[in-house]
Every structure is written in C-alpha cells, then in structure tokens.
Amino acid sequence: MYYYIKGTLAHKSGNYVVIDAGGVGYMIYTSLTSVERAGSVGSEVKMYTYLHVREDIMELYGFTSAEEKNMFLLLTSVSGVGPKAALAVLSVGDASEIAAAIVTGDVKMITRAQGIGPKMAQRIIHELSDKIKGEDLDLPLDDDTAPAVSGDNRSEAAAALVSLGYSMQEATAALKGADNSMSVEALVKYALTKLF
User: Fold this and answer.
1) Which CATH number fits domain 66-196: 3.40.50.10540, 1.10.357.10, 3.40.630.30, 1.10.150.20?
2) Which tops the pLDDT comparison, 87 or 176?
3) What is the secondary structure of 13-48 as a DSSP string?
C-alpha cells in the first residue's frame, strides 16, 4: 500500500520510529539498524515500508534501505518467522551481513537475534539459501560482464546481491577487481561499497 514514507523524524524508540508526514504521525516498527540510521529527531527521514495486515492487527514496518526491506520480506517468507522475528534478525546485522550468513550457513550469527534459536536459524538458512544463492540465476557468460572473481564464492556473492534487489549486471560489475581469496561475506561487503 505504501512504498515509502518521507517526513520529519518525530520520535525514536528501541523498536520503532514516528515519522511526521503531512501532519500525520506514522508509527513504524523497524530494526535497531534502521533506528540508528534514521538520524536524529527533527531531521528528515525516508523509510521503505511494508503494511502487515492480519484479521486483528495492522502494523507498519519500515527500513532505511530498500535492501533491508527486501531481506525482511525474504525472512518473513520462512515458515514460522513473523515480522517481529525478522526485525530481530535484521537487528544483528545489515542486509548484506544477513545474506552472507544465510549463504554460508552461519547459524551462530543468526542465533544472536533475540528469540531465534538454533532450530529456527537452521530453518531460515534451509529455506532461504537456495533463494539467495539463486539456483535459477546464472552469471552472464559474455566477456563484458564476466566476473573478475571465479568460483563458488563469487557466484554466491552475486546471488546475495541479486536477492537484495540489484540486477545481475550491477552485481557482476561491482564484484570486478575483488580478490579471488575473499569470503562470500567479504565479497558482498566489497560490492556494496561500490554500489552505494
């Protein structure tokens, strides 16, 4: 319903912010990462939003980046992971770190999230690793967009970037020049610095 809300940051709390947009105060639940990135009260802020509707509740969730929103939507697609659990996971790292943890099977990082135990972390990894690795996503084969880094780490990093909303061409271009020995997480971070 709402793609984003832009306005003045009226209030910050541990798990939500209030944005005054056109005289209406929108209470938006968010991750600790987005609360920190929202800025100070009184500054202008833009949050990418998701309206969660159930028969007995309507809640607005928001994120300071489209990548974080995309990761939130992926997390809530996992059986048993609701919006609050997804926010808890996004509060332990940014979207690229969570994507790298899922791709590399880092249960320990995901269990740092409040309320997420080893079984739930394994379920998240199991259900999302293929989506993030992008089994149906093939790297371009032409020389103009061929990756500079070869091997599984390169493919997994590119797939993680695609799952965050970037095109395969953007991901491939951002990974050019990366060291062949870098881990998937390091490759994703390297690419994101070039994409911002």
Assistant:
1) 1.10.150.20
2) 87
3) -SSEEEEEETTEEEEEE--HHHHHHT-STTSEEEEE
